[in-house]
Amino acid sequence: MLRIAVPNKGSLSGPAAEMLHEAGYQQRRESKELRIVDPVNEVEFFYLRPRDIAIYVASGQLDIGITGRDLLIDSGADAEEILPLGFARSTFRYAAKPGTITGPADLTGTTVATSYEGIVAAHLAEHGIDASVVHLDGAVETAIQLGVAQVIADVVETGTSLRNAGLEVVGEPIMQSEAVVIRRTGTDGEDPKVQQFLRRLQGVLVARTYVMMDYDCRVEQLEKAVALTPGLESPTVSPLHNEGWVAVRAMVPSKEAQRIMDDLYDIGARAILTTAIHACRL
């Protein structure tokens, strides 16, 4: 069986389980379950702490895993990202008291507090910055106020927590993170079971991004309509009973669906509708 690590808690857990369910995999019913077997799909799921998943995958005990890009890099484990999943996005930034730090160059000689020591140490080394890194578990905003560090490095979403702590963002983002599928570095990328798993998840990502659009239009307007809805390869066009009319079907990006419907209506298309896509293979 394919052995897969899944986050058992935190912001990664719920969305990961939902995506796997949409991909047709059985998921646990109780949060206390640490392992389940999906015999139909020949998969065994292990529910682990998100920070530990890269370590387990790198050890070779598990084939692949779902974790955060930040946790993968921070772990320093011998594992690699093979598919971004588009959820649990976050941005890592430096922050300090206003006016004390203007950019990375000013970090030299300072102490940086963070929960992601591996990420920060690698970033500092990459930019040739000689600074100390102190590891703290959570609530790093208070490190500056308590004199533990002059700078912090943490996840920044709205920046509200930083402002409440009297801090401001410094410099460019350290990294952009999101949920990713990982495997041990150097593992055979052609494993059919892994490829099938990735195709299923890619199908979910596409299904979430696109809708199916159907409409009728006159033949003389078909080229304009097709230009608006080119589909992935090309749209499906079928003649209608009424001469001079055709039915068109194409996948369109869901974010643009309303605008496309308006444009189609303006050139004379009618009976325009969209339907959700629950699964696909491209």
UniProtKB/TrEMBL annotation:
GO terms for molecular function: ATP phosphoribosyltransferase activity. Keywords: Amino-acid biosynthesis, ATP-binding, Cytoplasm, Glycosyltransferase, Histidine biosynthesis, Magnesium, Metal-binding, Nucleotide-binding, Transferase. It catalyses: 1-(5-phospho-beta-D-ribosyl)-ATP + diphosphate = 5-phospho-alpha-D-ribose 1-diphosphate + ATP. Gene3D superfamilies: 3.30.70.120, Periplasmic binding protein-like II. Its EC number is 2.4.2.17. It is found in: Cytoplasm. The keyword Oxidoreductase does not apply. This is ATP phosphoribosyltransferase. The gene is hisG.
